[in-house]
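Researcher: I need the complex structure. Ligand is flavin-adenine dinucleotide. Inputs:
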Amino acid sequence: MSQPYPELLAPLSLGFTVLKNRVLMGSMHTGLEDRKADYPKLAAYFAERARGGVGLIVTGGIAPNLAGWLAPFAGKLTGRHELARHRLVTDAVHAEGGKIAMQILHAGRYGYHPLCVGPSAVKSPISPFKPRALSSRGVGRQIDAFVRCASLAQEAGYDGVELMGSEGYLINQFLVEHVNRRDDEWGGSFENRARFALEVARRVRETVGPEFIIIFRISVLDLIDTGSDWNEVVKLALGLEQAGVSLLNCGIGWHEARVPTIATRVPRAAFGFATQALKDAVSLPVVATNRINTPEVANELIASGAADLVSMARPFLADSQFVAKAAANRANRINTCIACNQACLDHIFSRQAATCLVNPRAGRETELNWSLAATPRRIAVVGAGPAGLAAASVAAERGHKVTLFDAQDGIGGQFNIAKQIPGKEEFHETLRYFEHRLDDVGVIRQLGRAVNATELADHFDHVVIATGIRPRVLNIPGFDSDAVLSYLDVLRDRKPVGERVAIIGAGGIGFDTAEFLLGDGTGEQPPQSVPAFLAQWGIDATLQARGALVSAQPVTARRDITLLQRKSTAVGRGLGKTTGWIHRSNLKQHGVAMLSGVEYERFDHNGLHITVRGEPRLIAVDNVVVCAGQESNDELAAELVASLGDARVHRIGGALLAGELDAKRAIREGTELGAILA
Ligand code: FAD
Ligand code: NAP
Ligand code: SF4
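Model: Output:
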């Protein structure tokens, strides 16, 4: 059989070294870089990815000095006493035949601490700390710090370094007039603003010698008003080529940009146009990035000539064996990153270690493991939602005889509803992954019928109750009307919805229901096209505008929607840290009204009567859709405990606890239970 994904899996020679394929595991902070005690875990995490066949791994950002810290006590490499912990990582990766570069990240004004510095004292909108403007000597000291850090990385056994020059960090800050207001040789003209980046690259190359990989992460699209223009991006890239850089990795958007760059709303490979433009302008190998999550998409970027390599970060949290599976023609077994950010970036921004919603082992390779069960048991798993799927597949992999029941005709539970929401199309991939996984580990499926306690009690050693939730029903006058619907009526049963709608409950499902109703509301729509996405968010694909930003194209709203909650906090505050603003922004662009501090009084033929901070109001609507949270569907568990006893009945996911339930918790609980059932 011919080699699958031939362009992606072809080696790439950098002259002094050869990368075994075109896959770069992009830098992703895991939180394990920050504490010496966590380096054995970090080493195991990277070793597993190296074993999976990645061509070149890049670590999370490591600061070259205290001023460059992302946050107090973040990972740094400033002295020889820190080498030993890094050697754990490089030795582990090399033992698996991999290559690894260390990213040097100086946060500049994005540093979340009082010691942060910048080209000028311009505070960023995403940090409370105003940076201290660097003196001329201070600028020199930052360059020295980069150089020393690179030299230490070389000593620690890394195969190279990545200089973080995008996303709005220090190097990028020097390039842009808005935050670089200097009038010395480091500011003013483009030549002066680019001097810092070029000096860092030139001096690092001078120090590490010719046979060490230097990747420069260049901001091809700043996506801020005052960002670099395209001529400046190309001039910088050519200068970096001269300075001795080996690879140009594309960075998309500053962290303060108000444009989605990696969330699931972003179509796959949406920014390939920018990588292509850079590749056309330089002779260095160029790395494409952002929302590349399948071997097909990755291969196409290279085959079409848009890039020489492809960087993926989150997809390697989701599946460490991504490359090996692609190479073995088993891409349909890849556990695909769904770009939710829920367990990776949202964790990092709330100072928890990163893991992955679809793969709770990520970052926990030394802790969450399983082996064959000493005694194979007969196990029933009731409910084929995310919790049940995870439990059934892990238990079966360990040699148990597992039967998976679900009342629905297919697996997936609520994921079958979620996958129809615009921007959640990636949920299909999780269901595809589990279909194959169940086959591979021999889970018997009994779908299309609800089971009861009597059927289960005599035939199984253990019963796992993963029966999920029931939507909360509200007891409010008039809510027995046919015009009052639950989110299941709308999303699952496709009941018709009028043009004026009030949605009760502004949690994840309230927002998703609003997004669904912005479409025609009749079912799943094709994913947003790249041109439509770029137009909606004002991204200039012609690369004429500074920062690649133009006016966003106005969107048309099909319905008049009001989203309501009782809490007096801002609507949507409870959504994901890194994605909530995108949902809020999208609904606002579509004219969705949002009201907090609401009390629900009654529904009648005039509409929904509410009180907002003591003031009575009427919202004239055709329909009300209730998205007011859920309650556990756990009656089966109660009945079974009576006959089997506590030790043989196990609850997970929504059946255990409906509050704070999401797929992250459901899959983690299923996996952890599957790993220990004995
Ligand atoms: P469920 O997924 O509810 O599965 C329970 C299963 O049990 C069902 O298939 C049901 O048919 C079956 N069952 C029940 N009783 C029986 C019985 N007696 N016999 C046989 N079968 C039975 N979460 C996120 O983390 N991120 C998101 O972006 C996200 N978006 C969502 C969007 C929408 C529109 C919805 C509705 C949910 C979303 N969720 C999201 C929530 C997520 O889907 C749930 O948290 C998750 O599905 C819960 O998993 P579970 O396995 O506990 O239960
Ligand atoms: P949720 O996030 O708990 O939101 C429930 C909403 O209902 C809240 O706005 C709550 O706000 C309101 N509510 C609760 N009890 C009520 C009552 N008795 N009367 C009126 N309003 C009431 O739950 P969800 O939206 O149903 O989502 C379920 C789970 O799926 C969540 O845990 C969520 O994380 C997950 N999910 C995640 C995403 C995502 O994008 N990450 C998307 C969808 C779902 P008030 O109490 O202020 O009124
Ligand atoms: Fe991808 Fe979500 Fe996992 Fe992050 S948590 S790696 S976005 S699937």
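Model: Summary of the prediction. The pocket of NAP (ligand 2) is lined by residues 342, 472, 474, 504-510, 512, 565-567, 574, 576, 627-630, 660-662 (CB under 6 Å).
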